[in-house]
Amino acid sequence: AMDADVKKENLSSVQQLGVEMTVRYGKYLNLLKEDAENGLCFVLMNCETFLKQQRRTVVSSLCCLQEHYAGYDWFASSIFLIMAGDREKTLTFLQGFSCLLVSAFLWLPRLHLSMHLPVTTVEYGIHPVYFCSAHHIEMLLKAELPLVSSAFHMSGFTPSQICLQWITQCFWNYMNWIEICHYIAICIFLGPDYQIYMCISVFRHLQQDILKHTEA
């Protein structure tokens, strides 16, 4: 997309807030310079322009089925930080990455209203990460960590809900930056199933805390 076309796309209030948080975090990590905000906005607006070309038109009152992706693009922001604020490198990577299967699981806006999904799947408004990754996480949790699985069951809160939050935000605010980079790299190099193993590993790490909270 040319600069002139991209400028027509306006960022939502959620995206603007996300940009502020990303730039603040990037500066804290000494990865971004002062003019990084414009570069990140450019990346997000380009992503919106490109991804919109592969979306279906769905008439629905559901917020998650509106033309624009309802949330913030944490994955694109993560790549922007990995590329130290270089907008051209970020877009080049995302264009190549979008051709890989793993992009469907790491980059959630990638499949928003996507023509690559069956029409019925799109109309339900449920992302494949929820009925693929999150479903397998719950199945594995029962086998690997039955006490944690029971604790969630007793609380009336499903593990898939918190996992979807982790995955959507690329583990921002949950893991350190280097661990976030490892998560992204592992899933790209070893396959999307490592997203499931990562979540199970986190639950194993938190097992004692989860059980203690359940008792209390």
From TrEMBL:
Residue ranges annotated for the BROMI C-terminal Rab TBC-like domain, each copy included: 1-215
TM regions (residue ranges): 90-108
Pfam family for this entry, one: BROMI_C
Keywords: Membrane, Transmembrane, Transmembrane helix
Source organism superkingdom: Eukaryota
Name of the featured protein: BROMI protein
Encoding gene, per UniProt annotation: Tbc1d32_0
